[in-house]
């Protein structure tokens, strides 16, 4: 009978090393990495069981083609929580956590009452903020009704009750003004996903391997900043927006003053902080 170590070796053919292979198997089976490591010389079915063994065999077909772990497990860790991801949502990235960090700090400092998330996707930004500061109310907006279903699912699983979700068309009818608006807009101009591998394109500096598995609506837009027009931002309200460095000048021309930049964990991505006064 095959040993667990054989499965680890099989995964390692397509991943960086045994440690990454064990991390994948751990996420797929919900067994701890320590359990897998200590039992790697035991027979597969004894350690994993029939159901987990089938999961691992099925998952390796995705691993072969570079499918990210979050797309296999349909879960992504972001800030301090796990979020369900779907084919209709962007896979949350670590650099976007800077928006959450800034929004939590500013909302507490300014005693903000409400916050709007444009292009909410999984809801990871707005829900992370509300979990850290439950004294404010939130709203998440998206153009995809299926993404909104995912966000609502995450809100329910995380027991967040002070957030509403609405389609983009509804925000135009909403007369509320928001103290903070957060946004991670689609900012890749290239309309052809096949050209993502061209390193000469400045917009591809911020593209990673997971981008190939993200929905195109969350990535591509000839004018990604158009969603920042006519913002329902209150007086002295704050906009926090993720921006690739090659678009900094474009954003500076749009907002002209009362802005500053924050670095993120990604060298080609920054956060714009704009004060509306």
TrEMBL record:
<feature type="domain" description="Methyltransferase small">
    <location>
        <begin position="108"/>
        <end position="188"/>
    </location>
</feature>
<keyword id="KW-0489">Methyltransferase</keyword>
<dbReference type="InterPro" id="IPR029063">
    <property type="entry name" value="SAM-dependent_MTases_sf"/>
</dbReference>
<protein>
    <recommendedName>
        <fullName>peptide chain release factor N(5)-glutamine methyltransferase</fullName>
        <ecNumber>2.1.1.297</ecNumber>
    </recommendedName>
</protein>
<keyword id="KW-0808">Transferase</keyword>
<dbReference type="InterPro" id="IPR007848">
    <property type="entry name" value="Small_mtfrase_dom"/>
</dbReference>
<dbReference type="InterPro" id="IPR050320">
    <property type="entry name" value="N5-glutamine_MTase"/>
</dbReference>
<dbReference type="GO" id="GO:0032259">
    <property type="term" value="P:methylation"/>
</dbReference>
<keyword id="KW-0949">S-adenosyl-L-methionine</keyword>
<dbReference type="InterPro" id="IPR002052">
    <property type="entry name" value="DNA_methylase_N6_adenine_CS"/>
</dbReference>
<dbReference type="GO" id="GO:0102559">
    <property type="term" value="F:peptide chain release factor N(5)-glutamine methyltransferase activity"/>
</dbReference>
<dbReference type="InterPro" id="IPR004556">
    <property type="entry name" value="HemK-like"/>
</dbReference>
<dbReference type="Pfam" id="PF05175">
    <property type="entry name" value="MTS"/>
</dbReference>
<dbReference type="GO" id="GO:0003676">
    <property type="term" value="F:nucleic acid binding"/>
</dbReference>
């Amino acid at each position: 009978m095959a040993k667990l170590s054989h499965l680890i070796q099989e995964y390692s053919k397509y991943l960086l090393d045994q440690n990454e292979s064990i991390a994948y198997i751990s996420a797929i089976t919900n067994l701890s990495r320590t359990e897998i490591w200590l039992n790697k010389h035991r027979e597969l079915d004894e350690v994993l069981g029939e159901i987990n063994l089938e999961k691992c065999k099925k998952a390796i077909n995705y691993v072969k083609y570079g499918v990210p772990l979050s797309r296999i497990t349909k879960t992504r860790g972001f800030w301090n929580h796990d979020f369900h991801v779907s084919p209709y949502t962007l896979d949350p990235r670590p650099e976007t956590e800077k928006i959450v960090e800034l929004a939590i700090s500013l909302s507490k400092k300014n005693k903000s009452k409400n916050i709007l998330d444009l292009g909410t996707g999984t809801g990871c930004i707005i829900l992370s903020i509300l979990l850290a500061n439950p004294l404010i109310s939130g709203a998440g907006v998206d153009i995809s009704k299926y993404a909104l279903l995912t966000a609502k699912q995450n809100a329910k699983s995380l027991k967040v009750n002070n957030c509403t979700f609405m389609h983009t068309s509804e925000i135009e009818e909403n007369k509320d003004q928001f103290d903070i608006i957060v946004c991670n807009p689609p900012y890749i101009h290239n309309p052809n996903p096949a050209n993502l591998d061209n390193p000469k394109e400045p917009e591809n500096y911020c593209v990673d391997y997971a981008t190939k598995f993200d929905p195109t609506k969350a990535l591509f837009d000839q004018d990604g900043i158009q969603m920042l027009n006519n913002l329902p931002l209150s007086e002295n309200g704050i906009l926090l927006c993720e921006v690739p460095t090659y678009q900094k000048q474009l954003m500076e021309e749009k907002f002209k003053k009362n802005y500053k930049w924050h670095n993120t964990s990604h060298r080609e991505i920054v956060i714009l902080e704009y004060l509306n006064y």
